[in-house]
Design a protein that fits this description.
The protein is α/β, with parallel strands linked by helices. The chain is 32% helix and 21% strand.
Length: 284
Amino acid sequence: MDKTYRFSNFHTHCYLDDGQESLEAYVLKALSLNFNALGFSCHAPVPFDDEGHLRSEDFDSYLKTIYELKAAYKDRIEIYAGLELDYLEQSNEMAGSEYADRLDFTIGSLHVMYCNDEFGYLSIDYRPEDFEKILDCRFSGNIKDMVSHFWHLQTLMVEQHRFSFFGHCDAIKKLNEGNRYFNAQEAWYQELVAPFLQSLARNHVRMEVNTGGLARGKTNETYPSNSIIRQAVALGIPLLLSSDAHQSETLDFYFQQAHDEIIQAGAKSLDTLYHGLWIKRPIV
């Protein structure tokens, strides 16, 4: 790797959603790490109660704070305003897309599935009991049907919506420690991944390599797995590296190792924002 290479991170969460610190705390940490750029990406407001998302009434102050930090640190680091948009299958919408024209970037992610009229939307990657409710109430305990629906929804997102990059695309594995529910190496699972990756390639959508599961001790590998990264590289899908930081200490968690794994997968560059535009920065 070029000794002068500087990392960036466009997937972060602060005290306004489910993160733990002020926005400036992230900036100061990024400066200490000699980052080239930092993006803020609170979970976008959603039309149901969820304390882990930015409240719509806080959006203006969130944006104002980011622009104040941009001005204060403009000679030291590039700072960008973003949101992580949630796909809602019942309405086929990206929650938060109404704010997109005021932002520098957006992340497209799938965190929830519609369970039923009683429970509404429940998380697939947070509470095990919510995962179980979706599995039992909607899919009658058939994990293959649930996993198939997950990958189908993500493909729909890519085909029908626009965002700057796709977030943690195999997050369905987060609660699958020890292959509790499924084995991602089996042929049926791999056959579900392929159409999604083909859709990313066809629509020229970036895919993040996300170290957040490792940072929080929830997975033993990145999102997505190395096998998916290799397939993505072979298809020419642009990649970027992020840590999905919920505290500033994890801004660069596992970055050097993930960087090396990405190179081993055959990638020659990582995408980053530079002077407001997405560029490819060589990594080899």
